[in-house]
Amino acid sequence: MSTHDDGQEQLILDMVDRFLEQEVKPHVWKLEHDDIYPTEIVEKMKTMGLFGCLIAPEYGGLGLSTVTYAKIIERISIVWMSVAGIINSHIIMAMAVQRNATAEQKQAFLPRFATGELRGGIALTEPDCGTDLQAIRTVAKREGDDYVVNGTKMWISNGIEGNCFALLVKTNPEAQPRHKGMSLFIAEKGPGFTVSRKLEKLGYKGIDSAELVFDNYRIPADRLIGGVEGRGLQMILNGLELGRINVAARGVGIAQAALDESVKYSQIRKTFGKPICEHQAIQIKLGDMATRTDAARLLTQRAAESYDRGERCDMEAGMAKLFATEAALENATEAMRIHGGYGYSKEYPVERLYRDAPLLVIGEGTNEMQRIIISRQLIERNKA
What we know:
Elements: H1 3-24, H2 28-33, H3 39-48, H4 66-79, H5 81-100, H6 103-115, E1 120-123, E2 139-143, E3 146-157, E4 164-170, E5 182-188, E6 193-198, E7 209-220, H7 232-268, E8 270-271, E9 274-275, H8 280-308, H9 314-339, H10 350-362, H11 367-381
Parallel strand pairs: 1-4
Antiparallel strand pairs: 2-3, 3-7, 4-5, 6-7, 8-9
Helix pairs in contact: 1-4, 4-5, 4-7, 5-6, 5-7, 7-8, 7-9, 7-10, 8-9, 9-10, 9-11
């Protein structure tokens, strides 16, 4: 990154910090506990250009590096992780188009993605299919100038409030290997595309996670990303590397927030005549929490740098996602122990961190799956 880029990055991060301090922090407690979609916060993010943060300037985006993007996501997640999710799915959709679409598709959609006029996410997961994407059953059949889509998608972030999705379907259910029959479409809401229900969750409140139903939903053939059938899985796997960097950055944010709250509380709370930060039992916890947070941040930065260079980085993104999300879970748990009864009370942010962190070890590919991806790449890169 050049000095010029460093200057631009700092300006953007300062802008994000001000936005979080003024527009997000005062409202988190109420919106989160009542599970209310943060409409005004989203509108503000549109005007800041955050929905176009990785989209190239020629299409009206900010054209930021993935490294800067990861820093933005970390900062947002320290304050309220749900807001980071509202951006993430949308960006993966936008990048799938920017990297794979035809020139006409890019012109038609990227400027509208950048402004947030079209906003949404990725529709991959189904009721019977999460990690194993090749098992999807949603089918798109060609009829004249359209495809007709039938099927159900599950756990779709931005499903209710969003209006456009990168939709993964089977265009040839008989194809072997299965991924050769998979295609990716730009699907705007319309007749035959309904949101059947909002899914209630333990944490990650405010953001809408929904079940989407496609019942003879007609989609113009020119919405097939790249214009060629059978390439959908490859397109989306590349997007998932970016998604894993995002989730890793969220993990760093949660880990940092848990550490910040614990450092602050441990200096205020007294037991046996002194602040608890002077007890070795607490010092050991804080030392581990700080080390985990920094290691997670550095792994995330390395993965983002690799992605920016255009390298294959499923191993690096997998390591960052695995370590940072486990760090979030451990730090959130330790923060609760340090806070004692207050950690379990709704007065402090710690209980929210404790509810938000588990999502990260499951979402964007479970951590068990990350370990398998890492080891496969390890063998691949070190053939005996």
